[in-house]
Amino acid sequence: MLVTAALLLAVELLWLPLGDTFATLAPATLLIAVGCGLFHPTLIALHAMLLPGEPGRATSTFYIGFDLGIGAGSWLLSVVLDYAGFHGLYVTAALVVLGIVGLVPGLAGRQPSMPS
Prior knowledge:
The protein has about 120 residues and is mainly α. About 85% of the residues lie in helices and about 0% in strands. Helix 2 (about 20-50) packs across helix 3.
């Protein structure tokens, strides 16, 4: 599911700067909604799987990373926007999202930690 969400979101991020009409932007907007809608619960479920018996710790860890990603990502990508414009911004964001696909095999091999 994580790979599917990443691929949908990456396609959208590459598609969005190419749109200049409602007809081209509406499908890209739908894909971002679906991609983000898949990412959020999938990542929370992954955290819960890795920390069974500790739902509070799993959820708070997810949201700390989520909020840091929004804050730091916005700040870091503003530099890309200054130098590469909107197209460069969206291509960079798509590459970051596709980087997740490379992490999935390592996640699949992880064993859940047991509460102490």
